[in-house]
Amino acid sequence: MKIYDTKTAPTPRRVRIFLAEKGIDMEYVQVDLTTGENLLPQMREKNPIGKIPILELDDGTCISESDAICLYFETLQPEPPLMGTTALEKATIAMWQRQIEMCLFYQVGMCFQHTTGHFKDRMTPVPEFGKEAGINARKYLRLLDKHLATNDFMAGKNFSIADITALCAIDFGRVVDIRIADEHHHLQAWYEEMKKRPSVKA
Length: 202
Hints:
Blueprint: E1 2-5, H1 10-22, E2 27-30, H2 41-44, E3 54-56, E4 62-64, H3 66-76, H4 87-116, H5 127-147, H6 161-173, H7 185-195
Parallel strand pairs: 1-2
Antiparallel strand pairs: 1-3, 3-4
């Protein structure tokens, strides 16, 4: 079993942190996104859309998409639970995970791709779209700050995959100057606590 990974990319980092929280050791194979190694035919056989990370099982079965990979390991090793245990917990975590992914993680990613032109050899950057995505991400940080005024974690009383996604998005946002603002006291306090977790170094 191994995971095709890119150490500098935010999406694979989500999986590494998830597995570190569960204490699951993994073989990681580094893939160079800058040179387009992820788009080579042998990689597209593992994931047709050429995205990383990819979990390859011992029988050759491949699972892509970070959420799907995390769900696989959550099912195999439920403790500690990072995706909930009761119906309400699972639904609440899934809700916040989806919102954070769409309103922050995705927006930061689009801001990066479309304003920096980092992948202009394989896509057509639209700078105005990237700029708008950055604005959307900053707006959502304000929402999260308000949410954390009455919550210790993103999706309830316990650390979950939603916290991992938010952390990775915020850390990656610094590349395009999307940062926690000085007035976001609750979000900053949450972030400081997240940085203390050993898994964030994964």
